[in-house]
């Protein structure tokens, strides 16, 4: 399965911070924001990843992440010229996807919790589409999913005034290869974007859209506003300082998944010793 991280967009809700740099390169406590979605794909069993960025930030992402070889992965890059919607990622990445299935994660989404890796790996070979449901207090701010006892989606609505459930759809999606063909057929919405909800609705019409629930033990945060960016940093800081474990470390994820050896991990860690990040990696069993 292939993976895509959509790290484009203009970041207008974080201006003036984003006037000079992509929000996905900003720190969430001790790591660049994009480390978190990449690590989520890695623990899903995905190591072939396309990173979609803005034209002005593309080289900075390449400087940060390289070709993925040091992590036993393959990172490729593409550009989204304008913020034309999440679903455009499948058009930009059609050659990268080829005949494979694909997972898409938004570059400002952070996931953490017990059992997350097992849940993601359980859904990384879909026949149709898989979205995730996360119980929230204010579902009208999100895409909302309603589903039956078997996890088959009954309806999916974007920011409904009267939500049918409290389950929001976070920014990670798993699809079979037909998502490319579907993305080619959908048309821009009233706000001029190719909407991921429209792709999900096509799968729903085919009775091929399923939901997997993220339970209470899993945290989902997005970092698209000043307050949510601060909250995410504070969340990561509290967990890391209390537990002594890191969230969103791409090097640890690659090592844990067996993509790199302990010797390779130590080679990565040595230049990072002064910050304490490398020291943490050196101590991993």
Q: Topology of this structure?
A:
Layout: E1 2-7, E2 27-28, E3 31-32, H1 35-43, E4 48-53, H2 58-65, E5 74-79, H3 88-92, H4 94-97, E6 102-106, E7 109-113, H5 116-122, E8 129-135, E9 143-147, E10 153-158, E11 167-168, E12 172-175, H6 178-185, H7 196-205, E13 209-214, E14 218-222, H8 226-243, H9 250-256, H10 262-269, H11 277-282
Parallel strand pairs: 1-4, 1-6, 4-5, 8-13
Antiparallel strand pairs: 2-3, 6-12, 7-14, 8-11, 8-12, 9-10
Helix pairs in contact: 1-9
What does this structure look like?
Catalyzes the formation of dTDP-glucose, from dTTP and glucose 1-phosphate, as well as its pyrophosphorolysis. By secondary structure, this protein is α/β, with parallel strands linked by helices. Helices cover 32% and strands 24% of the residues. It contains eleven helices and 14 strands. Strand 9 (143-147) and strand 10 (153-158) form a beta hairpin. It is globular and about 50 Å long. The model has no long low-confidence stretch (mean pLDDT 94).
Provide tags for this entry.
two-stranded antiparallel sheet, 285 residues, 8-stranded mixed sheet
Q: Report the β-strand fraction as a percent range.
A: 15-25%
Q: Can you count the beta strands? A: 14
Helix/strand order:
EEEHEHEHHEEHEEEEEHHEEHHHH
Mind describing the biggest β-sheet? Answer: 8 strands, mixed
Structural class by SSE content: alpha/beta
Radius of gyration based on Cα positions: 18 Å
Helix content: 25-40%
Number of helices: 11
Average pLDDT, rounded to a whole number, is 94
Show unreliable segments: none
Which term fits the overall shape?
globular
Query: What is the CA–CA distance across the termini?
Result: 28 Å
